[in-house]
Amino acid sequence: MSKGTVLITGASSFVGAHVLEQFLSEGTPVRGVARSQSSADRILKMNAQYASLLSFVIVPDITAPGAFDDAVKDVEGVIHIAPPFTIDIKDNEKNLLIPAIEGTTQILESRGGQTVFCTSKALAESTAWKFVEEKQPRFTISVINPPVIYGPNHHYIVNLSELNTSSGMFYSLMNGSRTEVPPTSTWAIVDVRDVALAHKIAYYKHEAGGQRYLTTLGIFSFQQICDILREEFPELRNRVPIGNPGEPIPDVYNVDNTKAKSELGIDFISLRQMVIDTAKNFLDIEKRIAASA
């Protein structure tokens, strides 16, 4: 397995922190991309054990022409993490479309040699495939397509109000802020650790070049998450909404993860294990924040 430097964009994000860990834990040198020095310093502090392997480059605006020109110098390949998922958007074009599309375009334009490029988000993906078709670059790309991503937070959380959208939604189910189980709007789910693993495997697997992978463990509902929380954490029962325990999932749609399982060899973490690990993570964060108050 090659140990050339890997550039990881979005390294300070929920997904990016786990992708970072996947590569660093195997001794791979990583150059992370952060939008500010303070963000980079926080990640470096969290990964002090990998000080000799981890460095950062600051890119304040990923949509700027040539944004990644310096970042990609002397790297073997690139892992491009899509902009964070959020539902609190005032301007769809400015806050979602432009960062996703232009960020993807700039990293592709900057990269010259052999690389494997991993990303997500539909518009960013179509931009990447169009680039490859038109420019015929010397590198290959692989695309990782996750649905809603939950799981433990690996990056440092100072305040629980800092949680990304999906983590904040999960935490709201166990922090006592909800009296009712919310309706499920997106039914497919995956654990963030499996998403990170898929990025690493696709990066190193030659046959993954030119492929796209749907990474999902299957269909879920918020009712199922609440049921598991109440079963596994009796101390949280007064904080978790009851809803309709055991309510079956309606006939919405199916997802096929066969390709990710067979070609990437991923044995997806179960919904129950994901809920247990995520809840434990939040309880630990609560204790740490309370102890430092």
From TrEMBL:
Xref: SUPFAM superfamilies: NAD(P)-binding Rossmann-fold domains
Domain NAD-dependent epimerase/dehydratase: residue ranges: 6-108
InterPro entries: Epimerase_deHydtase, NAD(P)-bd_dom_sf, NAD(P)_dehydrat-like
Domain of life (superkingdom): Eukaryota
Keywords for the protein's UniProt record, in alphabetical order: Oxidoreductase
Keyword Oxidoreductase tagged: yes
One annotated GO molecular function: oxidoreductase activity, acting on the CH-OH group of donors, NAD or NADP as acceptor
Family: Belongs to the NAD(P)-dependent epimerase/dehydratase family. Dihydroflavonol-4-reductase subfamily.
Name this polypeptide is given: NAD-dependent epimerase/dehydratase domain-containing protein
